[in-house]
Amino acid sequence: MSHNAALDAAAGDGGEEIWARLSVGLLYILEKLDQGLDAAKYMELYSCVYNYCTTLRSPISGSSYYAAADTTSNVHGVIFGRRLYLLLNAFVVENMEKVAERSGSFGGDDLLAFYNREWVRFGDAARMIHHIFGYLNRHWIQREQDDGNSVSNVNTLMYHQWRDSFFMQVRGKLLESVFNLMTRVRDGQVVDLTMVKSVADSFVSLGSDEVGTTAKKMDVYNTYFLAPFVKATVKYYAAESERLLQDGTIIDYIVRVAERFKEEDERAELYLHETSLSEFKHALTMTLIGKQKTSLQAEFKPMLVAHEKGNLRRLYQLLRRLDDKDGLEPLRAIFSDHVRQAGLDAVAQINAAAAAPAGDDAAAAAAGGSGGGMTNEARMFVLALLSVHDKYSELLRESFMDDPGFSKALDHACSDFVNVNAICPANENKASMLLATYCDMLLKKGSASVRKAGAEGASEDDNLEEQLSQAICVFRYIKGTDVFQKFYSRFLARRLVFEQSVSTHGEETMISKLKEVSGVDFTIRLTRMFNDMTVSKDMTEEFKEYARTNNEQIPYDFDMKVLHTVSWPLSAPDIKLEVPAALGKMCDMYSRYYEAKHPKHKLNWLWPYCKAEIKIFFPNATGPAAKSGYMFQVTTYQLVILLLFNAESGPGTGYDSAAGPTLTFAQIVAATGLGDEIVKSELEVFCKARMLNSSGANSSVVDTKGSYTLNADFKSKRLRINLAGTKKPEQKREVKETMKAVDEDRLFTIQAAIVRIMKSRKHLGHRQLIEETINQIKPFQAQVSSIKQTIDQLIDKSYLERDSNDRNAYNYLA
């Protein structure tokens, strides 16, 4: 008997009986599995599959019995496996056609409900049948797949027939029902969105080669669900977008669209597959935002001017859905320009107020009151910068979610208006000087009005630290950090030498913050200045012990500070001061002590940075002043001048007569060794304080041709009077000297950079040398003219030479 004849015999006899029992069970699983399937029935069906694949009719002489197939041969197993596979396929096709026929009586939500019920039922049935046909999957199907034949396992076979025999027949009507349901949702009706999710999930499963594996193929979902769904969504929102713009303002549109995006994002997460979310959101974005981009961006500037944080946040959240270049980049440029102009306007306002006539009360109030000079200008300048920065930093946080692009735009704008404005001309680095002055005010005693009160319950140190952090915020935008360093170090030197620091903690905090921003090299000298102060305190105690050991008396309190020249921005004066005997004796004693301790060191006396307290008894003083006198805090120069008016013969008052000694201007200059300019400056202080009387027509005005006597009738409500304040001429001189030192340091920095570059490169073109020099110098922006001038100086000093073959190139000379 042939193989085909044996197959026909099996199919027509025992095979039909097995299939008949099997088909009854399959129909039950497809239609009534929710009623349960007991283990006995499951094993019966499983055995049917096994028997069909492994048993065939073998004719035995005189007998009609079945005998087991020869398991050493695959021929009959292959034949019966294929026959069973084809029978199952036909059975599933027939069942799916019946389901498709039944679906014809449904529409709308009823169709979705029917589809989802059948889908769930079919999925459970497919899994069960897949397990029942496990033997077929493991043997015949596996061999076919190993041989390269296109045969799916039973589970996939069933889903393919769902797709081909049912889904493809109803998909148009099914999608129409989905779109109608979504329209009702978007119109505000309450519906069951899980039906949409179930439909979408079925589309995903139908595209899988192997259902239940992670290797999902999205072809069916993308082609038959996502593309039509996106198209319908775009159509719906294009119509709504046009309607919103016609019926309301652009603000109304922004608010409504923001709500729409929130709703759609939440719904999309619910029923769309995760791989399609970006495509859906992009299509929605281009419909609601991309087409209206120009109108939306045009509304940004008015919102910014009005400081509408809520609307700005909504607009930002909408436009960030677009590509950065198309959506937010134009807004960042507008934001940067607006902040820059706001900063310039704020500085111009305080500059105009400071320059207003004294009678203009409003202007005076805006300028922060009367007087103040540079310190008041510095305070108002820094506070104006901070007000603009804080205002738009808050906007950056609350409306732009700390967006890096907007943060960068804010930084660029602040850097522009901080360095160049109505108060700070270009290339003068005045902003650095004013910031250093402001920091000096914060950290110096007697500036309590500058240090604002902080949060309730906060300590003074906490409040000071907050303001120092704000100063550092401005410092980050300063371009001439070397100028700031010079001025700050000078101010710090004064605070330390004159013991005017409001707190050591505040000074250390500021240095720590500067180090964090600019590095150790920026603050190393500042740190050494503190070390010198600590060492000086110990040396003062040692000096007192030295005096006691050598039986030398110290007639008054004497505090000496030894400062290393390399660390301190202070220089010894060119004048030769005639030191009074009482002071000179102490200085000589300390010099002997110091030279014995450090024989290789040399002391240079910094007289302009010394202070003293002197008690003066005026002859006609009354009340407490007559008994205890007046205590004046004076500079060394002032002390030397005042001691000239002291007489040794008076009984307690220090005067031979009520008028006391009379000295001419020339005598004072000769007796002190001070120049005319210094003596005149100090006499102006005494005359304005009415301590001295001038022989001129106005006793309070200095006359270089006149003479001076102590004012016997001097009176003051205060018994302690400070005359050692910095005078305006001194301030101007110090500013000039500091800027000169900055220029010298910059010259050395440029020279060092050029030599370093040329030493490494040996030969370099003119343009390339300038570019590399600018890139290497960080503390300031080197000017091309300065670099060219420095190159010429280095050529003169034989560090460089022009190339003989190319006059626009240089060679390094070892």
From TrEMBL:
SMART domains: CULLIN (SM00182), Cullin_Nedd8 (SM00884). It comes from the Eukaryota. GO terms for cellular component: cullin-RING ubiquitin ligase complex. GO terms for biological process: ubiquitin-dependent protein catabolic process. One of its GO terms (molecular function) is ubiquitin protein ligase binding. The keyword Ligase applies. Coiled coil: none annotated. Residues 430-687 form the Cullin family profile domain. The keyword Glycoprotein does not apply. Keywords: Isopeptide bond, Ligase, Ubl conjugation. Pfam families: Cullin (PF00888), Cullin_AB (PF26557), Cullin_Nedd8 (PF10557). Belongs to the cullin family. PANTHER family: CULLIN (PTHR11932). This is Ubiquitin ligase (Cullin) of SCF. It comes from Coemansia thaxteri. The gene is CDC53_1.
